[in-house]
């Protein structure tokens, strides 16, 4: 029982660290731009991605929202930077399955992103956690077309 409490505390600390000290905050020039929002709670994200030769070479975000949406955006930009598009989209699928409480492929290390696992217990917050991921999917899928 206490190990679950410790894990929850650790996960909360990781989420708050990404919220208070976001990684990759800002925007990129000459890049893919995706703006998305979650009208139910007011979260909004401005995501910029550099994609070269089928690889996400850089990712930055700006926006405003709850700690979960902003921490998730910080974690997502860290996770997909340097990944090929196929892997970035696979990570998004894994994350989506994790958020929905479904079985997911754990062959790809998600790093800090696993701290968001607990969000799946709060259906109203899942859209907060997945907003940045949906923006990334939209951006790379539009790039592929």
TrEMBL record:
GO MF annotation: an example: iron-sulfur cluster binding
Domain NIF system FeS cluster assembly NifU N-terminal: 11-128
Domain of life: Bacteria
Organism, scientific name: Metabacillus arenae
GO biological process, one term: iron-sulfur cluster assembly
Family affiliation: Belongs to the NifU family.
Protein's UniProt name: SUF system NifU family Fe-S cluster assembly protein
SUPFAM superfamilies (alphabetical): SufE/NifU
């Amino acid at each position: 029982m206490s190990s679950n409490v410790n894990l929850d505390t650790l996960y909360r600390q990781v989420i708050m660290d990404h919220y208070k000290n976001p990684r990759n905050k800002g925007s990129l020039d000459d890049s893919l731009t995706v703006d998305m929002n979650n009208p139910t709670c007011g979260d909004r994200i401005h995501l910029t991605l550099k994609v070269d030769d089928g690889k996400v070479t850089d990712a930055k975000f700006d926006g405003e929202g709850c700690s979960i949406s902003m921490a998730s955006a910080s974690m997502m930009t860290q996770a997909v930077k340097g990944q090929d598009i196929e892997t970035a989209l696979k990570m998004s699928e894994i994350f989506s399955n994790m958020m929905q409480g479904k079985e997911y492929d754990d062959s790809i290390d998600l790093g800090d992103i696993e701290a968001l696992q607990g969000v799946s217990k709060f259906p109203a917050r899942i859209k907060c956690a997945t907003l940045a991921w949906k923006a990334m999917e939209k951006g790379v899928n539009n790039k592929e077309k």
